[in-house]
Amino acid sequence: MSKTPDQLCIHTITNKPWSIEECIHNYAGAGVGGISIWRNCVEGKNLRQINRMVNESGLSVVSYVRGGFFPATDIRDRQKAIDENLKIIDEAYQLGAPLVVLVCGAVPGQSLAES
């Protein structure tokens, strides 16, 4: 079975020097179907406006990257991570992203099971 560019999704980190606007324009212009948006690419931007730009370009937001980083040895640090991830979920919603990519693991001095 043959694959076509519209079945492709590109992460914005792949073209890190480009702005989100350049990513949207260039991916759509190349016939790419999906975009995974990294947080650093939209920091300080109007996320609903970015959502509109993506939709108008014909791209689909596949994911918002990245959340996670929950493990902590201190309860305050863990709560900070939870609060940050709640913010990330809201940002993903504003962008129309159906999922958030999480980075998980352990911290030094804490078992993987405990983390």
Account of the protein in words:
- By secondary structure, the protein is of the alpha/beta class.
- Helix content is 40%, strand content 18%.
Instruction: Please state the oligomeric state of the protein chains shown.
Output: single chain
**Distance between the amino and carboxyl termini:** 42 Å
Could you describe the largest sheet, including whether it forms a barrel? Answer: 4 strands, parallel
> In terms of per-residue confidence, which ranges show pLDDT below 50 for 5 or more consecutive residues?
none
> What general form does the structure show?
elongated
Query: How many β-strand runs?
Result: 4
Q: Structural class, please?
A: alpha/beta
- Count of DSSP H/I helices: 4
Which percent bin holds the helix content? Answer: 40-55%
SSE series: EHEHHEHE
Percent of sequence in beta strands: 15-25%
The main sheet orders its strands as 1-2-3-4
Radius of gyration, whole Å: 16 Å
Q: What is the average of the pLDDT values?
A: 92
Give the topology.
Layout: E1 9-11, H1 20-29, E2 34-38, H2 39-42, H3 47-57, E3 60-68, H4 75-95, E4 100-103
Parallel strand pairs: 1-2, 2-3, 3-4
Helix pairs in contact: 1-3
Please provide a brief summary of the model.
With 115 residues, the protein is of the alpha/beta class.
Keywords:
115 residues, alpha/beta, four-stranded parallel β-sheet, 4 strands, 40% helix
